[in-house]
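FW: tagging you since you asked about this chain on Friday. Here's the raw sequence from the shared folder, copied in full. Didn't touch anything.
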Amino acid sequence: MKEPVGYLHSVESFGAVDGPGVRFVVFLQGCPLRCLFCHNADTWEIGEGKPVTPSELFGQIDSYRNFIQNGGVTFSGGEPLLQPEFLCAVMALCKEAGLHTAVDTSGAVPLSRCREAVEAADLLLLDIKDIDTGDCRSLTGMGNENALELLRACEDMQKPVWIRHVLVPGYTLQEEKLHRLGKELSRYTCIERVELSPFHKMGEYKWEFVDQPYQLGEVPLPSKEEIEKAREILKHYELSL
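HL: got it, structure written out here
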């Protein structure tokens, strides 16, 4: 049977921030969002990247098995759920090898297109871009409806989820929004932890590669005090940070 072909942007062999333990991180090419704070703008274009089969990619992963056996493999991007058939095939090979799998997703892909891949993953790292769907559309080009539908599906499946949220001053770093986010997330038993990521500009130079202006150049980085205040607000809702 012919293997599906996926499109690979890059890999990181010793990731330490994308799931539990030391992980092999696979960055798949293509993303439907255009987040103003994106630090991987070079992963946007769909159909670009290096063509690879599941077996070829797993060969790379397997060569690091001794180093990641107590961690696992994380599929990121771009948006990995844009390539669900390929993703399922690679995760099946990882599962046969006893490797934990995580999918780092924006939740932007409709669940009807990616449910099988969601079900196959051991863990989802779900990025809630903005709790307000209108503001989310302004910030990313798409509302948050698909992401929240995915979170509800994970609750039904009791699929473990780590929530990720970027603190962008003037956008998501607002007390009212953080209270709304905390209240919403507190409803879910599938959420194991929440990770807050301070806005940064380390990927600003990549916007030149996609010939797009970087619009957040004048936005300040969040202060330590602002970050700690955000953490305290979410802790109020008994969320693990």
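FW: The longest strand covers residues 6-15.
HL: agreed, and The radius of gyration is 17 Å.
FW: great, closing this out.
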